[in-house]
Design a protein that fits this description.
Layout lengths: L2 E6 L6 H6 L4 E3 L6 H10 L5 E6 L5 E14 L23 E16 H4 L19 E4 L1 H13 L2
Parallel strand pairs: 1-3
Antiparallel strand pairs: 1-6, 2-5, 3-4, 4-5
The structure holds a DNA duplex.
DNA sequence: GCCAACGTTGGC
DNA sequence: GCCAACGTTGGC
């Protein structure tokens, strides 16, 4: 099993939105970055754990989710009305992919980015690297365990 | 609102 | 293949 961190702006789609989604599951559509796509398409498997990160105001890890369906074509790229429309992607040759993400739980107290930066064990985390903008990124098993422990401690 | 970092585009 | 220009992300 692998571990990931996925970013979302809560104004766009929050962990609370995932709680309220049908079957508490959502397709992670709209990713238009090749590195992030490759992680989803090539490396994510159902059952992988996902740290759900809120970017923007009060950036923090809000809770835990999991990959519930392996990658399949992101059809929003084919829709001219969609914000993430990309005419280079077609049903015959899809360029963009998405996975389904299913809710597991909300941390009783979210772990703010500023706090994570103070945790010695997390100093090498991709999330904390300067200029990091990747919206889908791998998390090491150790980083994941440290974060889950912190989430328990704060509850 | 600002700005640094980064990815993409397109001319050459 | 290089690189300047541009758009976007995202923290502060």
């Amino acid at each position: 099993m692998r571990y990931w961190l996925m970013k979302s702006e809560p104004e766009c789609f929050s962990l609370e939105d995932l709680v309220n989604a049908p079957e508490q599951t959502t397709p992670w559509d709209g990713v238009r970055n090749y590195q992030a796509r490759n992680f989803m398409r090539d490396e994510m498997r159902p059952g992988d754990k996902v740290l759900f990160y809120h970017s923007g105001k009060n950036p923090a890890i809000a809770g835990l989710a999991e990959v519930s369906r392996e990658a399949y074509p992101d059809h929003t790229a084919w829709d001219p009305e969609n914000n993430h429309f990309d005419p280079r992607s077609t049903p015959e040759a899809p360029r963009w992919f998405m996975v389904d993400v299913k809710y597991i739980r909300t941390f009783s107290s979210p772990l703010p980015l500023a706090y994570l930066k103070t945790v010695p064990e997390l100093q090498d985390m991709a999330l904390l690297r300067k200029g990091n903008r990747l919206s889908v990124q791998p998390v090491t098993e150790n980083e994941f365990n440290v974060i889950m422990t912190l989430a328990e401690m704060k509850s």
